[in-house]
Design a protein that fits this description.
Bound molecules: heme C
InterPro entries: Cyt_c-like_dom, Cyt_c-like_dom_sf
Largest sheet: 4 strands, antiparallel
Keywords: Heme, Iron, Metal-binding
Protein name: Cytochrome c domain-containing protein
Distance between the termini: 12 Å
Shape: globular
Low-confidence stretches: none
Mean pLDDT: 88
Strand content: 15-25%
Helix content: 25-40%
Number of domains: 2
GO molecular function: electron transfer activity; heme binding; metal ion binding
CATH topology of the largest domain: Sulfite Oxidase, Chain A, domain 2
């Protein structure tokens, strides 16, 4: 059983965990590719994780799973925490309500607490382009375990599709699943539903879901990226998902 910990108790009074004020470009408030700066109060993510999971969480090849109240799941390779600074924040620095209007998913006044994982994206164009896919909010538990790549890349698929599986994990598996692996916000198995799509219909749905189904809360894929790159990602996901053999491994 991988170690898992609830993130509920107030952390501020724990020794070695001093609250910080941090500034990020808020992807959930992106409008026309521009993100406003927001200041939050929170804690260095690595320090919190070490406190709740023990120092072993940093071992290479593992993955952290952040699970939210509404079933949203972010699985993030531990290596990313060595590459980029992250914080678990608990309030806005300006004292306003700890919530966002999530433009990406057409949701308003979404509460962010108890914990919201944010990244130091001000100096990184790559993080900015990624959007909010790996910014889970309403986080209540965190778990560390083996990488999902084994489930996502059965047989010899890794040779061809490792990159595509990584894209699926970043952009889709917070809400959906592949072979039973992923989030429950909108629990459907993409490797199954993809069989009902031709490539053009698939691309159109991923790139402009609101144009296909007005009012949908499915976010458009990586809106911060250039159109050609977005289309290429949609196609890679399509090819990968169609290549998966049937079958749902145990979770
Ligand atoms: C934030 C959550 C979220 C993320 C991330 C997300 N989706 Fe969705 N997806 C939804 C919701 C909600 C629906 C239901 C849409 C509706 O009916 O309005 C949906 C519906 C779908 C459907 C349609 C199922 C059907 O036939 O009715 C497909 C296919 C799909 N998503 C694929 C993807 C792919 C591929 C990705 C990654 C590029 C992705 N989704 C990312 C929330 C999400």
């Amino acid at each position: 059983m991988p170690p898992s910990a609830a993130l509920r108790a107030p952390l501020g009074d724990k020794p070695g965990l001093a609250p910080l004020t941090v500034t990020v470009l808020e992807p959930h408030l992106a409008r026309d590719g521009r993100m406003p700066e927001v200041r939050y109060v929170g804690f260095e993510a690595g320090a919190v994780l070490t406190r709740v999971l023990g120092a072993g969480w940093r071992a290479p090849g593992q993955e952290l799973e952040f699970r939210a109240l509404d079933g949203f799941v972010s699985r993030i390779p531990v290596e990313r925490f060595a590459q980029h600074r992250a914080w678990l924040v608990t309030a806005r620095a300006d004292g306003r309500a700890f919530e966002v209007d999530n433009h990406l998913q057409g949701e308003r006044q979404v509460p962010l607490g108890p914990y919201y994982l944010v990244w130091d994206n001000r100096a990184s164009k790559a993080l900015q382009a990624e959007g909010g896919a790996l910014w889970p909010y309403q986080v209540t538990t965190v778990r560390v375990g083996p990488s999902s790549m084994r489930a996502l890349l059965p047989g010899d698929l890794a040779a061809t599709y490792a990159g595509a599986a990584d894209l699926a994990r970043t952009h889709c598996l917070s809400c959906h699943r592949v072979r039973g692996y992923g989030g429950d916000k909108m629990p459907l198995d993409l490797d199954v539903v993809v069989k009902g799509y031709d490539a053009a219909t698939w691309r159109r749905w991923l790139l402009e879901p609101a144009a296909v189904r007005p009012g949908t809360t499915m976010p458009a894929l990586a809106e911060g990226m250039p159109a050609a790159e977005r289309a290429a990602i949609a196609q890679r996901l399509y090819d990968y998902l169609r290549a998966l053999p049937p079958g749902t491994p145990a979770r």
